[in-house]
Amino acid sequence: MGLTDDFNLAVSQSKELTKRPSNEELLELYALFKQGSEGDVTGDRPGGFDFKAIAKYDAWAGKKGMTNDDAMQKYVDLVARLKEQYS
């Protein structure tokens, strides 16, 4: 199985966790998913009082420069750890 297959499997498994991960873990999942599937963040940082959108943007922007393969592998590793913790 290749990295892309592992990544897609991890995406499915992340939706099957029996307990909700912490906000920090959710942001890390989001950032690694976006970096692995789309690459570096684009567009302007959200403004105003949309704190959730700002947090997601900042988490993704923190992965800038990470290769898609590195992000996908880190995502797979994180989901494996969360499965042990929350399943």
Task: Tell me roughly what share of residues is in helical segments.
Answer: 55-70%
CATH topology-level fold name? Acyl-CoA Binding Protein
Any low-confidence stretches, pLDDT <50, length ≥5? none
Top-tier CATH class: Mainly Alpha
How far the N terminus sits from the C terminus, by CA atoms, comes to 23 Å
Query: Major beta sheet, specifics?
Result: none
CATH architecture: Up-down Bundle
Integer-rounded radius of gyration: 13 Å
Secondary structure tally, helices: 4
Number of strands: 0
What overall form do the CA principal axes indicate? flat
Q: How many domains is the backbone divided into?
A: 1
* SS-based class: mainly alpha
State which percent range the strand residues make up.
under 5%
Q: Could you give the order of the helices and strands?
A: HHHH
Mean pLDDT: 96
